[in-house]
Design goal:
The complex is a heterodimer of chains A (374) and B (575). Chain A is α+β, with helices and mostly antiparallel strands. Chain A contains 8 helices and 21 strands. In chain A, strands 7-8-9-3-10-11 form a 6-stranded mixed sheet, sandwiched between helices. A 5-stranded antiparallel sheet of chain A has the order 2-1-4-5-6, covered by helices on one side. Chain A has a 5-stranded antiparallel sheet with strand order 14-13-12-15-21. Chain A is elongated, with a radius of gyration of 25 Å. Chain B is built from 26 helices and no strands. The radius of gyration of chain B is 26 Å and the shape is globular. Classes of the chains: A alpha+beta (374), B mainly alpha (575).
Chain lengths: 374, 575
């Protein structure tokens, strides 16, 4: 299986820059997810790799073959790229039954009837649809259609597999099952895959690596763990999972790799572990996951362990099954926190663990530290 | 060394690949351009030339236009045509709107049957409707004489401009009805509910909400009907001819075929004037369509419009609609049938006294008449089939390819809408004269098939391209990534999915082509007669019987194909 190289790819639609000079590499056999909100350019990128969209500049190479190179004017038409693609709407041909949908690409490749039937049987077995061979798309459930679409994309042994939000039309329960099933098939086949989604859970569960996109740029590429634990930008921290943002200023660096941040909204400073360095007095943005925020009842007069402790008041709380989600007021800002037990008192201590925060130089133009509803 | 370097440089210059799809796309676009421009350019050219196009020498001048506009006859023609078209538009739109609101939105008994019956005239040639009306309502017509005898007054005169406008309105009302009722059927009931909660009664709602929201279809069909009113040949010829009221179409007809020597230059100039007027109207119509967002009443939510409760009034209105259908459609058609099977038709003697099969026998005993029937069927079948396939290709190239000139192609395919049938005929006449390789098909039914096909390109395009737009582009994308090139994708996926639209395009074209005669006027030759023109010819000779018989045959053929289309292909034309 080859690797996919995308270099300096860009595409404008009129005045809108859909993809803005992005570069990334998908390693041999890797499952890479392009993750971002709608309009971030992820689908345009995927369509450019498939050849369904003609980019303005850049280079797309899969293994040894160059699909697109704006410097030489080379553009390989989609039918010559041998990509397997699963579309968001599945795009099953409604006038063909399951067998014919799978046979069509094989017929185009002049595969003999016998080899074709064998291959289709093999793929239908893989996607667990042996019994539905003669059904037409409209006679199948959404989940079954999605599996036919995957089977059709795999039946001709494509060089790479491209998936455009294939699970977004399934209901929540089915999506979860389809997710783990898709992951199993992909790792069994070891096919180099690019997956496009706006669903962060899908991205975290499925991917070897995730490329987070925003406004035509790639913000960060990394393993799901990297992306979640050490987001490179406030946007990534906000988009993947939920984060609390606290504004502050650089108040000094410790020798143990920590820095001290004066919070803007509260009369307090917190100490944070970081490898980054900032100028004294620089505006900072600290992000912390709600599940990392520790909450202790203030009415009980127990001694607090060392750490960043702030006085807070419980604003409200909702029960979401696995935990309680609370909004806590800390002076002039709000923190979201998840606790196992319901908080019954109004006055609490919250702790911000020094090793569970990410800290960024704040962009004065952007105010992403507003109060967010739960 | 230098040679090697040059060879290397040459190799690095990339020649554009020539692919099969490019050949098809350029071929389709090129052919469309030729077909659409073929009638246009010669008409324009002939209007500026001081002698026929087949004569060498000659200079370009405006003399034809000068002659045209100084011709007092032409001034009358303009006046008559405008009066006729305006009156026709007013009557048919008024009728169409009233019928659409009553049948589409009010609790008139038997709404769905009445709705179907109101559409009947659309299947008929205006020629046939004109014949039928003359048989019944002309000064010597059956009903007219009947009324005259019983009341001893001359009740009406059909051979006047208002009389003609009434006949034309019967033929054209279904257009207005069709546009208005399809918009009335999908209107959002919430808009009317809002008026109702604000305190408006049913009548008030109808006048202040329902009707104003129908403005786009009203305006759109008004322009369409006005355009047809300008160019229609049958009614002016049949009703205006006997009393010498001349119209644009009959003016063209008489100046070309009437005199000893056709005045080609004058006809060319008149044709260009007509072309200009219609083009302006169509452009205006397109503008109307573009600015309709504020009338958008259809939202994603599926709803059913409310039915207005009319109380006892509904029976009175029901009776009015039935009376209209009886007088406008059923009686004249009955007259046509009676006339087809009688020697004379007069209220003085019961029709069964003159019963005869002679009219049918006349038609089937002259080869030229039989030929006009077989030719018409052949043209409608082959023309419908070929045009449908060709237009399917056009819409695939125009809407589903990366073809560089696809926007131009899209425009070309609907352009013939601005070309009145007679002008298409004149244009092709010149094209066949001037383009020598086309010589062999001149004077054959293929010349007619070509002209008819071009004239109805927009009809087929209108039947096919909306369906194509409803087929998701991801189906093409899926086929392309699976390894199919553009042509394979078009053939194996899109054309197959388009089948229902292709069937209805075929049936629609068949209905239009079997009754088409306007563009045949200048192209017809011995051997290539078509039904419409043969009827006109009989009529001029005063042979009403065979005309009625032939009209009846045309109606029966149309009914058969419409019925077969419904049964075999589930095609619902005009539904």
């Amino acid at each position: 299986m080859p690797e996919i190289v995308v270099k300096d790819l860009s595409k404008r639609f009129g005045n809108v820059v859909a993809v803005n000079h992005i570069s990334f590499t998908v390693r041999d056999g890797e499952f890479l997810t392009l993750l971002g909100p709608s309009g971030c350019g992820k689908t345009t990128t995927l369509f450019a790799i498939a050849g369904l969209d003609h980019p303005d500049t850049g280079l797309i190479r899969v293994g040894e073959s160059t699909f697109f190179d704006s410097s030489t004017g080379q553009f390989v038409v989609p039918e010559k790229r041998n990509c397997g693609m699963v579309f968001q709407s599945y795009a099953l041909w409604p006038h063909m039954n399951v067998y014919e949908n799978l046979a069509f690409p094989l017929r185009l490749r002049k595969v003999s009837k016998k080899a074709r039937d064998e291959r289709i049987a093999e793929i239908l077995n893989l996607v667990e649809l042996e019994l539905y061979k003669d059904r037409y798309p409209h006679q199948l459930s959404g989940g079954q259609q999605q599996r036919v679409a995957l089977g059709r994309a795999l039946v001709y042994s494509p060089t790479v597999l491209l998936l455009d939000e294939p699970l977004s039309n399934l209901d929540a329960k089915l999506r979860e099952r389809a997710r783990s099933w898709l992951k199993r098939i992909q790792s069994r086949l070891g096919i180099t895959s690019i997956y496009v989604t706006h669903d962060q859970t899908e991205a975290l569960v499925l991917s070897d690596r995730i490329a987070v996109m925003r406004e035509g740029r790639i913000c960060q590429v990394g393993s799901p763990q990297d992306i979640y634990a050490s987001p490179a930008e406030p946007f990534v921290a906000d988009f993947i999972g939920t984060s609390n943002f606290l504004r502050g200023h650089m108040a000094g660096a410790g020798e143990d790799g920590t820095i001290l941040v004066d919070l803007d909204a509260a009369k307090a400073s917190i100490r944070i572990n970081t490898t980054k360095s900032f100028a004294q007095g620089a505006p900072l943005l600290v992000s912390i996951r709600p599940e990392k925020v520790r909450v202790v009842d203030r009415s009980r007069d127990a001694a607090l362990p060392a750490g960043n402790w702030l006085e807070a008041e419980v604003v409200d709380g909702i029960y979401v099954g696995a935990c309680y989600r609370h909004r806590l007021r800390v002076d002039r800002t709000t923190l979201r926190a998840e606790t196992e037990a319901e908080l019954t008192t109004k006055r609490v201590w919250v702790s911000i663990p020094d090793d569970a925060c990410a800290v960024f130089e704040a962009d004065p133009a952007q105010d992403s530290a507003g109060e967010t509803p739960i | 060394m230098a040679v090697k370097e040059r060879a290397h440089r040459l190799a690095s210059v990339r020649l554009p690949e020539i692919r099969k799809e490019h050949l098809i796309q350029y071929g389709v676009a090129g052919l469309t351009a030729c077909l659409v421009l073929a009638p246009m350019l010669p008409v324009l050219y002939s209007s500026f030339r001081d002698r026929p196009l087949y004569d060498s020498g000659g200079t370009l001048s405006l003399s034809n236009y000068a002659r045209l506009f100084s011709d007092p006859g032409f001034h009358k023609v303009i006046g008559n045509t405008l009066a006729f078209a305006t009156l026709t538009t007013l009557i048919s739109v008024l009728l169409g709107v009233v019928m659409a609101v009553l049948v589409g939105r009010a609790d008139i008994p038997g709404r769905s049957v009445l709705g179907e019956m109101l559409l009947w005239p659309i299947y008929l040639s205006p020629l046939v409707i004109a014949f039928a009306w003359v048989i019944m309502y002309s000064p010597a017509g059956y009903v007219t004489l009947f009324v005259k005898q019983s009341l001893h007054v001359q009740p009406w005169n059909l051979y006047t401009i208002p009389g003609m406008a009434v006949v034309a309105s019967v033929a054209l009302m279904p257009i207005a009805y069709l546009y208005c009722s399809s918009s009335a059927a999908v209107a959002d009931p919430a808009l009317e509910d809002a008026a109702r909660t604000a305190g408006a009664g049913p009548l008030r709602i109808m006048l202040s909400v329902t009707l104003p929201l129908m403005r786009p279809p009203i305006l759109y069909s008004a322009v369409l009907i006005f355009t047809i009113g300008l160019e229609v040949l049958s009614i002016p010829m049949i009703l205006g001819g006997p009393v010498g009221i001349d119209f644009f179409s009959s003016f063209l007809y008489n100046r070309w075929l009437g005199g000893a020597r056709p005045d080609y230059g004058l006809v060319g100039a008149a044709a260009v004037v007509l072309l200009l007027i219609v083009t302006v109207l169509v452009l205006f119509q397109n503008r109307l369509l573009r600015d309709t967002a504020r009338f958008v009443t259809v939202r994603g939510k599926a709803t059913r419009p409310h039915i207005f409760k009319l109380g006892r009034l509904r029976w009175i209105l029901f009776a009015c609609i039935c009376l209209y259908l009886l007088l406008a459609a059923i009686l004249p058609m009955a007259g046509l049938v009676m006339r087809a099977f009688t020697k004379f038709l007069t209220p003085l003697v019961p029709p069964w006294r003159f019963l005869t099969m002679n009219n049918m026998i006349v038609i089937f005993s002259y080869p030229a008449y039989v030929r006009s029937i077989t030719n018409s069927i052949l043209i409608a079948l082959i023309g419908g089939f070929v045009t449908t396939l060709f237009v399917a290709l056009i819409s695939l190239v125009a809407h589903r390819s990366e073809f560089r000139f696809r926007k131009v192609l899209d425009f070309l395919a609907i352009y013939p809408r601005t070309m009145p049938g007679m002008i298409v005929g004149i244009g092709f006449f010149w094209a066949f004269v001037m383009v020598k390789p086309l010589g062999p098909i001149r004077n054959t039914i293929w010349a007619l098939t070509l002209a008819f096909g071009v004239r109805y390109l927009p009809t087929a395009f209108g039947a096919i391209s909306p369906m194509l737009a409803r087929i998701g582009a991801e189906l093409d994308d899926a086929a392309r990534t699976a390894g199919a090139d553009w042509w394979t994708t078009s053939r194996a996926i899109l054309l197959v999915l388009l089948k229902p639209a292709l069937y209805s395009s075929f049936v629609l074209l068949f209905i239009q082509l079997i009754k088409e005669y306007g563009s045949a006027v200048f192209l017809v030759a011995p051997g290539s007669e078509v039904m419409g023109l043969t009827m006109l010819q009989f009529w001029v000779q005063g042979e009403a019987g065979p005309v009625a018989a032939l009209s009846l045959l045309q109606v029966v053929i149309t009914m058969v194909i419409v019925y077969a289309g419904r049964k075999l292909f589930k095609v619902k034309v005009y539904a």
